[in-house]
Amino acid sequence: MIHNILPKVDSYPPGYYEWMNDLSDHLGKFYEMAIVGKDARKKSMELFGYYLPDKVVAPSEKSSDLPLLKDRFVEGKTLIYLCVDNACQLPVEEVKQVVLEMGK
């Protein structure tokens, strides 16, 4: 269905927003980010300053048993875990590192 819509998108792009969103979901990666530590909320707000579609962000300032956050809390650090297809990369501390990784 998306293939049939693509030739029409140029005529009125806002009218095809949902179709383009579906295409993005189909072609791109879906990211999950766990941000854990004292500055989790601050770093998540910094992350939202970038246009990064197809992501879920789960910040937590303390230890949690939620599956994405479980066993990720390290006292005295705020770590960001970038996960794709149920596999997480090594944690980083800077939002810019995550943004660069997502741009690859």
Fold and architecture overview:
- The protein has one domain (28-102).
- It has a 4-stranded mixed beta sheet with strand order 2-1-3-4, covered by helices on one side.
- β3 and β4 (87-88) form a beta hairpin.
- It is built from 4 helices and 4 strands.
- The chain has 104 residues and is of the alpha+beta class.
- Helices cover 30% and strands 19% of the residues.
Task: Give structural attributes.
single chain; 104 residues; alpha+beta; four-stranded mixed sheet; 4 helices; 4 strands
Shape, principal axes of CA atoms: elongated
Low-confidence runs (pLDDT<50, min 5 residues)?
Answer: none
* Number of domains as seen in the coordinates: 1
Strand content: 15-25%
Secondary structure class reads: alpha+beta
Work out the helix count. Answer: 4
Précis, in short:
The chain has 104 residues and is of the alpha+beta class. The protein is built from four helices and four strands.
